[in-house]
Specification:
Length: 356
């Protein structure tokens, strides 16, 4: 990271991420069923040697026992989980290390930023050449070090990033200060979502909560607060992890315990969110789910792609019911017009955070 701004590329560059210590088990790619079983057996052997435990973990056992676990809800009516805060406090200085613990989040910008941009362009008749999201107020909940806030700001949006971890906000503030344009478009606050509800009722056109809902203490309260601070007809974008047998094996055992793609203990399988549960909570709080797409991370290339299956990671776009907000038009643009605008926007400022 440098103290001066470097020239920004005009299009999304090809990502060249060294795979380093990431060696994805080829048997998993070749034979999913056998591969998952072998990986669990390898993990059990290592765990038994380390702790003396003789408790077996099997695919059959997981299928019969794990899916009876309900997602715990807090009775405190707060979405902030203090244990989660402590986890991210320890890594607050590492947000902008592209080859570190947040490498996968840097790479995720290559698909999540265009997803947000193109969806919003398809809903609006107002388009600003060079700044396609100009005039749109976005709330980035759980913004961390600003990995998603910055590219949205480069697209012209006015972004407010909130995070309960003060060190995350300090990191985000420091990084945006290197770019005078971003310093004007983005503001960060050390705050929970509930703490800004009263001052921000129906304030934002868009809310993004990327890789956040699997860390909150009370998902129902979180979704309710999103509805309260979002304008009528406003958009909510969520990316998260499904609660499946496969997500346990790949998201916990492989990614954390075997390959070290993310720090061990980052995720708790019990807090993963099935799409059906998320859709139910959204609809009960006045949202209509418009699209849901599966996401897949390839550790060999360090890249994300869209897939049909939502059994691992997935993205959701939902719209709050109500009268049309003045900053958005209700007419949907023809597909050819959206594609043309998206192509123009892609050369106007959609670059991943890694370009900074």
């Amino acid at each position: 990271m440098s103290g001066s701004c470097r020239p920004r590329p005009t299009a999304l560059p090809a990502r060249r991420r060294p795979v380093g210590k990431v060696v994805f088990p080829c048997r998993l790619l070749c034979s999913p069923k056998t591969g998952l079983r072998d990986i669990l057996q390898d993990y059990n052997r290592k765990r038994q040697l380390k702790s003396g435990s003789t408790l077996p973990v099997s695919l059959t056992g997981m299928k019969s026992n794990m899916f009876t676990v309900k997602r715990p809800f807090s009775t405190s009516h707060s979405s902030v989980d203090l244990k989660e805060m402590k986890k991210f406090q320890l890594l607050a200085h590492k947000w902008w290390d592209e080859e570190g613990e947040y490498a996968a989040l840097h790479s995720m910008n290559d698909i999540r930023v265009p997803f947000i941009r193109d969806t919003l362009l398809s809903m609006s008749s107002n388009y600003h050449l060079g700044n396609p999201l100009s005039g749109i107020k976005i709330l980035d909940v759980g913004c961390g070090g600003g990995l998603l806030s910055e590219p949205l700001g480069r697209l012209g949006a006015s972004v407010t990033g909130i995070d309960p971890v003060e060190d995350n906000i300090r990191t985000a503030d420091r990084h945006k200060s290197f770019d005078p344009v971003l310093a004007k478009r983005i503001q960060y606050k050390s705050s929970s979502l509930e703490e800004i509800v009263e001052e921000s009722m129906e304030t934002f056109d868009v809310i993004v909560a990327s890789e956040v809902v699997e860390h909150v203490a009370d998902l129902e309260t979180f979704i309710k607060c999103c509805s309260q601070v979002l304008k009528p007809e406003g958009s909510l974008f969520i990316t998260t992890i499904n609660k499946t047998q496969l997500s346990y094996v790949l998201g916990i055992v492989v990614a954390e315990k075997i390959m070290g793609i993310v720090p061990e203990g980052t995720h708790e399988w019990e807090k993963f969110v099935p799409p059906e549960e998320l859709e139910r909570l959204l609809e009960s709080n006045g949202f209509s789910v418009k699209s849901m797409k599966g996401m897949l991370y390839n550790p060999l290339s360090g890249s994300w792609s869209w897939v049909e299956s939502t059994s691992l990671n997935y993205a959701v776009h939902a719209v709050k019911a109500g009268a049309p907000a003045q900053s958005h038009a209700t007419d949907t643009l023809p597909e050819t017009d959206v594609q043309q605008r998206s192509a123009t926007a892609g050369t106007a400022g959609t670059v991943p955070d890694s370009a900074v």
